[in-house]
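Why does this matter for the project? Reviewers at the last site visit asked to see concrete outputs rather than summary tables. In response, this paragraph embeds two records directly. Each consists of the residue sequence and, immediately after it, the corresponding structure tokens. Nothing has been edited or filtered.
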Amino acid sequence: MEPYSTEPVIIIEEVFPQDTNSYGTLFGGRLMSLMDKAAGIVCSKFAHREFVTISIDTLKFLRPAHQGDLIEITSKVVFTSTHSAACRVIAKRINKSDWKGEDICTGYFFMVAIDSQMRPIPIPQFTPESDEEMKLWNEAKSIREEMIK
């Protein structure tokens, strides 16, 4: 079974007042939610299956986003096992005045494909084709192996 798509998914959202704390910066939980959504969508696009989150790992908050910024979230499947996929998710903040972006958060989201009974089901397998893809594959594989221990 071949993947339906190995292309990344990009979501863009604006930071509104209800998304911020008393400092006017984006709530970390709101950002995690957006990143999780992007991971679920890219997995569904990859395998044409329903997915649920089983783990989030190596989540690094690098800098804040502010009210009025745009948040660009890019998610890509970088590793698969029989029933699960790992996505590398990168969030950037974009200032609308110059449209320059800077990374604000990165992480790995592990998702499992499920059927209508919430049981794990097989998915297509991702095959790394470049040195960068192989690096991300190995990184995600190591994280998964630690998680299983």
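We now turn to the second protein, recorded in exactly the same manner.
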Amino acid sequence: MRIGVPKEIKTHEYRVGLTPASVRELVAHGHRVLVQEGAAMAIGFSDDAYRAAGATIASEAAAVFAETDLIVKVKEPLAPEIAQLRADQVLFTYLHLAADREQTIGLMKSGATCIAYETVTDAQGALPLLAPMSEVAGRMSIQVGAHCLEREQGGAGVLLGGVPGVPSGRVVVIGGGVSGTNAARMAVGISATVTVIDKSLSRLRELEQQFGTQIHTLFSTAAAIEAAVTEADLVIGAVLVPGAAAPKLVTREMIRRMRPGSVVVDIAIDQGGCCETSRPTTHAQPTYVEEGVVHYCVTNMPGAVARTSTIALGNATLPFVLALADKGWKAAVKADLHLLAGLNVHAGDITCPAVAEALALPCRSSAEIIRG
């Protein structure tokens, strides 16, 4: 199969769909890989490294899209990329369609088969291709949140770890999944006072067993969220409903009652965000102030640590890329129902029920598609 790796064009996005190590594995399986010139230069993977792994280097993205059957990316395609997709082409990348009607309609019009990393599942019901970036985003959220709390960044001037005689900062993590757990781990590591809120009692028990008395846990209710958020120095929005838009659990009124200069880091912004006051930002302009609170809502947080993120993502995606390339997309998803769960758009139809519901659009059964 001919596999294409274009350079990402989202603002300050330096990750890349395949590492040279992944390319080498694909070439060993008899596939041709076409990588856009300079696709990973910013993170230390040179064009020569890709050539050494067996890839061909294309000078422009147009050639990558025109000459390949499977496009492997990191972030959702922007309008110029969607315009280059073909009906006989497969796109494998993060999509996050539930919060993006325009992209969804564009992909439907393209006729391409679009498989989203974030809805691929595993035998445990987890999301193996979302997990690496959730780990990165969770760990980064405390790092960027601590920075935003500095007075020069518009924050209240709070040191999360405190010092002797001064209380530590209060961190509230809403959502105890992969990103929330990693945020809690980092916050505990710098001696912050940490509260994790989740709607699953079993998950809260697991977190208590993992962290012991280092964190506080709260069952998710509107009252519990309100009480915790309004007293927090840093709120981490780490809510995830696979494939669907994030629920708005933090209201504008809650934000208004926070101390001026407090910080919200909304990791869920890819899916629309879990705060009413959240709106997407970029690494070029990562923050804004709403109701006196600093908001960090960058939709590609892991792009800031692009080398680490690219390697972590490549480790997770490679088996699936190999399956798609070796078998063809239809045989691959027939053989692996977990990969089938990643199918979001095919031949003009939405095939992910959560996306269809979020956007109030019709949904075609993926099972019907693979039977055809």
